Amino acid sequence: MNVIETGIDGLLIIIPKVFEDSRGFFYEKYQLERYKDIGIESEFVQDNRSRSSCNVLRGLHFQKTKPQGKLITVTQGVVFDVAVDLRVESDTFGKHKSVILSESNHIQFYIPPGFAHGFCVLSELADFEYKCTDYYDPLDEGGIYWSDPTLNIDWPLLKPIISDKDSILPMFRDIFS
Ligand SMILES: Cc1cn([C@H]2C[C@H](O)[C@@H](COP(=O)(O)OP(=O)(O)O[C@H]3O[C@@H](C)C(=O)[C@@H](O)[C@H]3O)O2)c(=O)[nH]c1=O
């Protein structure tokens, strides 16, 4: 397993050790001790899976008082995944990091609690799986509009398919001013 630091404290790109043979491949998607060793110490309490079609964009989402850390794996398709640092005391507050996650690169993204998160789908469809360090609470949901220019995210698409909920999210400065 290789771990790439992102320049944002705690935000990690993880490349699992993949064993390939004539049958296909195998890798450990999560292993408590090994992931603890790289700094992912929180307990995961919820596992989610979503499927999205090409051009779908979900995000940018966070929970206001019960922030969720997320360990993300894409098991089908290709996505452009983004995390925005919302930790006000952080040197990288407001900064983001993006990564391509796909069924063939097997890359995982660990987003610690305190980030907004979103992704868009670059393949015909994508299966998106993530472990969370806190429970989903619909009353605690927050979000930022995906193309907020303040964030300067270089999304690889112009007209994504988004939910009604995501289409009316506020701008970063409306939340943090
Ligand atoms: C996220 C979530 C949704 N739901 C329900 C609520 C709703 O009826 C339906 C779809 O919810 P959403 O539209 O919020 O799903 P989605 O847009 O996929 O939300 C997710 O987006 C990505 C970017 C994240 O980072 C996640 O934390 C989460 O916010 O599923 C749950 O029951 N549990 C959950 O944990």
TrEMBL record:
Keywords: Isomerase. One of its GO terms (molecular function) is dTDP-4-dehydrorhamnose 3,5-epimerase activity. Its EC number is 5.1.3.13. The record marks Y136 as: Participates in a stacking interaction with the thymidine ring of dTDP-4-oxo-6-deoxyglucose. The keyword Isomerase applies. Pathway: Carbohydrate biosynthesis; dTDP-L-rhamnose biosynthesis. This is dTDP-4-dehydrorhamnose 3,5-epimerase. The gene is rfbC.
